[in-house]
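quick one, two chains, predict together pls
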Amino acid sequence: MKILLVEDDKQTADYIAKGLREHSHVVDHADNGRDGLYLATGEKYDVLIVDRMLPIMDGLSLVKAARASGVRTPVLFLTAIGGVDDRVAGLEAGGDDYLVKPFAFAELLARVGALARRPPITAATSLSVGDLEMDLLARTLTRAGKRIELLAQEFKILEYLLRHAGEVVTRTMLLEKVWDFHFDPKTNIVETHISRLRSKIDKGFDKPLLHTVRGAGYVIRAPD
Amino acid sequence: MSSERLIRLLRSASFRLTLIYAALFVVSAGALFATVYWTATAAMQNDMAAVLRTEALQLTEVHRRSGLAGLAEQIARRMNFRTRGPIFYLLQAPNRRVVVGNLPGMPPVDGVIDFVPEPDAAETEAERPKLTGYGLTLSDGSFLLVAQDANRLGDMQRAIVRAFAWAGGLTLLLAIAGGAWLGNIFLRRIDTITRTSRAIMEGDLSARIPVRGTHDEFDQLVTSLNDMLGRIQQLMDGLRQVSSDIAHDLRTPLGRLRQHLEDARERAKTTAEYDEATDAAIEEADGLLETFSALLRIAQVEAGAQRSAFASVDLSALVRSIGEAYQPAAEDSLHRLQIHVEDGVRLTGDRQLLAQMISNLIENALHHTPEGSTVSVGLRKAGAGFEAEVADDGPGIPATEHGRVFDRFYRLDRSRSTAGSGLGLALVKAIASLHGLTIALADNKPGLSVILRRVGQTHAEAKDPSLRSG
């Protein structure tokens, strides 16, 4: 994947670029908003990672300008510890996701992956992985033809995982997408829900579909 | 009054105002004076001329009837008996010989004349009266002059001037004295305010301007200023408290972080040991970052900066969904979590913050109660507002501590050893007040009950109809 990183703090930029390159991504780096905009509008990227606070031109203006000149590349904003307003302003400016600094690298990697492989908005009525099938209209779930009953929130979690099948989905991503929680609860809400979900969809089957990726999150994928 | 104070008084705004008023008074009094002076003088002059003219015409009639001799006799009689009015006469034959009269001869002039008669030997310059007279040349060429002391006019004019001078001078004096007095009063009150602000600038934040209890504009101003000072002091105290709390409370985790790193460097022999020490250090750093983020969030919420994200929120749905989110976690920690939510409770607010507020309360209850406890979350309408309650049947909090649990970094002694930043309830309180909710603690007998109440619509909602839910 080709990624543009616009970040003025050299240490952070090196840390992110190094990590992304280790995961075999191609990274271009700009350390100010003007150069960032120049690259974003001139080159073709899969994802833009843009810091909010940048010299010469701030991140919001950069993304607004890029969007105005027709750049459709998904944007991940990096913000300092911020409030809800920051997040809303970022999304309104044309950002697709945001990440609050400091963050675990696994979190950044998972989000970049999710953005780049953002599925086209289709009117899919069913999702499936292996022998697990979810009917989005009837809101039913079957595995190997056997009906599985899920609670509303479990259904939402599984739907999100299925839409990102094969990708790592972090705990924070689930908190945001399923519960719209943009803060970090001290209680293991996600873990307990996943464990219940897992016992419903994987228990009694030979090959588990739902896997925990240590230090990163969860992934649902078809058995090899 | 010292000379410095006098100078300040003269430069004071109220004194300047008094001077302007005094000047205005002087100008208008001057105009009044001129009018009175000229009108009275003109009227008196007319009056005198009319009297003299009548006298002269009467005497002409006598002359016509009884000739020069008869007229002379008549004049002589009048001269003897008249004590006021026209008392000066001159009848002069055509050859300028004075026939009768108490005035020296003069060249004949017809009509009104002002003159000073030729001096007699007996009279001194100063005593010579100024006269006003009416002259008439009779049919036989003799000249008749009737005159009167013109000083009456001068007397009246002088009286008018005197009256105005006295009255004007006195008023002006009073105005200036009154202005000085008023100015002094204002100065004294302003001085008090200035002195107090100096004291505050020099560091005595508790100084307040005394209120006089007269409920005048000054008192109102002083009350507002005092309220403002109170608010500023409160904020300053809060700030000071927070910085000392941060310094105090972050020392421990920073110390632990250092220890873990030291462990990694000094003791770790195997990769596993090394990983373990680094993981512990990362965990410690995450905790620190979380504390910072919570502090920032509280500060932002308290500053009211989050209002821009306000929208109509279905609180019923929100509370229910949060309750469901915590259900499995509650079961795993062997708690019962009961949710009783009445439908249709809406609130204008920040959904994220409200979610965090409710989550913090539920987590707080789950965290501080032993296994087997019940935590119940309730939401019900109450009048125009609503009431939200998170209650448990755990050990509760002593009533004496109720006032302090919302302070930043406050933790009960028995919670010292458990995880948590001590910021959860401080954030709850900040979010509650941002949304116009009152928060109260009650003894659940046993346990603790936290009740959030909303009486009616918020100030912001009342002012801005677009914010109203619906």
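Residues 2-116 of chain A form a domain with the Rossmann fold fold (CATH 3.40.50.2300).
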